Amino acid sequence: MNKSFAALLALVALASGAVVYGVMVMTGPDMRVQPALMAYDARMPLLPKDAVPAVPGLFFPSERPGANTSEYGQTTLVRGKFAYVAYCVFCHGERGDGEAPVGQSYAPGPGDLRTERVRALDDAALLRASLTGVGHDPVLSRVVPPGDRPSLLLYVRALAEGREPGPAGADRVSP
């Protein structure tokens, strides 16, 4: 009887241990202690007060004293055209008139980038409208790399003014 009682006691202890282990694995303290944050939910901590950021905020050429888009030259416009073709041409068309196959499938259709309304926007408003405006939100703000945004902005300005990059480093007027 001693052996059977000891075996029964061992079996009960083993079963209770298995139950406790199962409860701990399924609902244990580890799940309550660890933060339930996904990487994209986390916010970067603020920089210390006297720290200088390695990459300053967005660069808007026209905010520089005495700056205008023509002084940034052909290379910037060519890079802007490359970004425009990669991200914008499908909806706004090659001339920025909103006449493109993908754009025509939307209601309302994409805006004409050559209008006075677009010309009147300051750089910050134009960039914001380009990245998060109607039909864009919020995809383009995640897709267009920050390094391409200034040149893209300058190229859209050039379209609005009727200029685009031409051969041999000379601006030419669009037809």
UniProtKB/TrEMBL annotation:
InterPro entries on file: Cyt_c-like_dom, Cyt_c-like_dom_sf
Domain of life: Bacteria
Gene Ontology terms for molecular function: electron transfer activity; heme binding; metal ion binding
Record domain Cytochrome c: where: 75-160
Keywords: Heme, Iron, Metal-binding
Ranges that cross the membrane: none
Name the UniProt record assigns to this protein: Cytochrome c domain-containing protein
Organism: Desulfovibrio sp. U5L
